Amino acid sequence: MRTPVSDPMRIGPYRIVGRLGSGGMGWVYLGRSPSGREVAVKVVRPELAAEGEFRERFAREVAAARVVSGAYTAAVVDADTEAELPWLATLYVPGPSLAEAVRADGPLPEPQVRRLGAGLVEALQAIHAARVVHRDLKPANVLLASDGPRVIDFGISRVDGAPGLTQVGVVVGTPPFMSPEQIRGATVGPPSDVFSLGGVLVYALTGRPPHGSGEAVRYRVAFEEPELDGITGPMRELIARCLAKRPEDRPRLDRLMAGLLEQEPREAVWPPPTVAHSIAARTQDLVKRRKQSTSVSVPSCLLSHARALLDAGLTDAMVTEAVVRGGA
């Protein structure tokens, strides 16, 4: 996996403030527009940018994300799919992903999970209204904001009516949160996202996917019943319907919304206290960054450069030499 020797200072019109994360597809940076608006900028890795099919897939992601609008999705503000390294900018959400929140502090209480589920249903309603199927709804693609969740990453979404790049029988997605039809490589529609939503809710309540993980997860998703221990009452029944093997047996989103809100106690507060703490810390960090001058201090630059060199696999001695040379 290639890593840049140093992070870019600017992508398109956006000044790069810091790196938010990285993955197999590329890097995500915190950027700032000329007017000071924070954005998350996803940049494709060079080896993938050199592949024509991947560039086309990335262009499809941008197109899918642009047609979706809703309170619980992260809005696309800019993109350049023709750049040497294609990039996509969305509004920055200063909150952890559901995966991060559960890993750090454990499962969420049921009242908050009902609020979370209602927000995700509303997000899927907006996505499906735009004739898009997300196909990769999972805890890592759900950001927890102060006013509710945000669904992100339309990398393998499918726009209804648009020719697909995925060949018949080829499986794409994240197996523990994929639907049985997706596991089989069959055509998927909105009910597939409902199945994935059921899996996300199980994860939020228990800290694990409903069919586990590992090599056998594909078989369990396709043929075995989900593990719902620890989930009781109407919530268990609702999730079980979402995880039905046959797409036609899963609830419509409007009925799912009604079921989630029917049992929601009035005292259900969003965000949960631990998530609120994480959001506050990220927001404070943003405030500090805004107060900094537009030019980054030399020590900060050198520290960032050192981290990037270490990421690239260079030795401590080589890093020290580079940092000293840079500060000379």
TrEMBL record:
PROSITE patterns: PROTEIN_KINASE_DOM, PROTEIN_KINASE_ST
Protein kinase domain: residues covered: 14-267
Keywords tagged on the record: ATP-binding, Kinase, Nucleotide-binding, Serine/threonine-protein kinase, Transferase
Gene3D superfamilies linked: Phosphorylase Kinase, domain 1 (3.30.200.20), Transferase(Phosphotransferase) domain 1 (1.10.510.10)
UniProt GO MF annotations: ATP binding; protein serine/threonine kinase activity
UniProt-listed Pfam families: Pkinase
Designated name of the protein: Serine/threonine protein kinase
The species this protein was found in: Streptomyces populi
